[in-house]
Structures are given as structure tokens and as C-alpha cells.
Amino acid sequence: MRLTRHGRAAGLGLAAAVAFSACAGSSAPATPFPSLGADAVVVTARNTQFTTQSVHVAAGKAWTLAFDNQDNLPHNVVISDQNNTTVFASTIVTGPTLKVEAAPALAAGEYHFVCAVHSEMHGTLTVP
Ligand SMILES: [Cu+2]
Questions:
Q1: For 122, phi and psi rounded to 5 degrees?
Q2: Per-residue pLDDT, 32
Q3: Burial, 60: exposed, middle or buried (Cβ in 10 Å; 0-12, 13-18, 19+)?
Q4: How many of the other CB atoms lie within 10 Å of CB of 127?
Q5: What is the distance in A from the centroid of ligand 1 to the CA of 79?
Q6: Ligand 1 centroid, distance to 53 Cα (angstroms)
Q7: How far apart are CA 74 and CA 36, in angstroms?
Q8: Interior CA angle at 21 toward 15 and 26, to 5°?
Q9: Are 99 and 53 in contact (CB under 8 A)?
Q10: 4-63 pLDDT, tens per residue?
Q11: What's the confidence (pLDDT) of residue 23?
């Protein structure tokens, strides 16, 4: 059994802290983004899956989607509310590429996200 020095702390951190941590916990992938604000949420697509399947953002505040498409395929992030109403759809980009986009403030609740091109790619967004 082998523990990294910062694994536990990184797991408890905010998305921004994880983004800047070179030694994040095993469930938090390292990010290639050079700099991200505190409101940024990293979502990673790899092998036609979102490897970041559960994210959260603060209620009522605009935020930033930092999308890391590692596939040589077109992907995006389409967020829908519980009524299946789309509340945000990012630009479809073919990777490998990094795309940072402004996302709108969301009301508290549970949301679902998919890739517009690959409906089998999905995850959840929680707004507490
Ligand atoms: Cu896709």
C-alpha cells in the first residue's frame, strides 16, 4: 500500500485546487490547463467517455467549463436539467484540444450532461 503525500488533501479540495495540484488523488486526473480561475470546472473526455463523470458548481454564479477533449473525435458537453431542458451546450471540438468556455449561472438542483455527438457519454452535475 502506497500513499502519496497530497492525495487526501487534493481529494477534499475544490475543482480549482485539483486543477493546480500535480499530485491529485487517483480519481482526479491531472489537468493540462495552464491556468484556471476558481470558478472553473474541468471535464475530461477520453476513449469516448467522460472520465470526469460527477462535477459540481456553485448555485447562481456564472462559471467556467474547462473541457479537455483527449480524443481525436468531436465531443462537447450538453447540460440538461431534470426536465431535460438544455441549459448549456458547449462548442463541439475535435481533440486532442483544450477548450475553455463561459457557462451560465444555474439554479440549485441535479443536472445531467452528455456529449451531443455520443449520447453514451454522460455524467452528472450537482448544484448544491
Ligand atoms: Cu462525443
A1: -150, 160
A2: 84
A3: exposed
A4: 19
A5: 13
A6: 14
A7: 23
A8: 80
A9: no
A10: 444 444 444 444 444 443 333 344 446 788 889 999 999 999 999 999 999 999 999 999
A11: 39
Residue with cell 470546472: 41
Q: How far is the CA of 50 from the centre of ligand 1 (A)?
A: 9
Reading the block at residue 11, the C-alpha cell is 481529494
Joined together, the cell numbers standing for residue 81 give 436539467
Residue 104: is its pLDDT beyond 60?
yes
Distance from the alpha carbon of residue 4 to the mean position of ligand 1, in angstroms? 33
The per-residue pLDDT for range 78-88, each reduced to its tens digit, is: 999 999 999 99
CA of 108 to the centre of ligand 1 (A): 26
Neighbouring C-alpha atoms within 13 Å toward the C-beta of 59: 8
Instruction: Supply 109's cell numbers.
Output: 438542483
Q: Residue 112 corresponds to which amino acid?
A: H
Instruction: Give distance in angstroms: CA of 62 to centre of ligand 1.
Output: 24
Identify which of 114, 125, 101, 126 has the alpha carbon closest to the alpha carbon of residue 48.
114
Q: Decide which of 13 and 101 is more confident.
A: 101
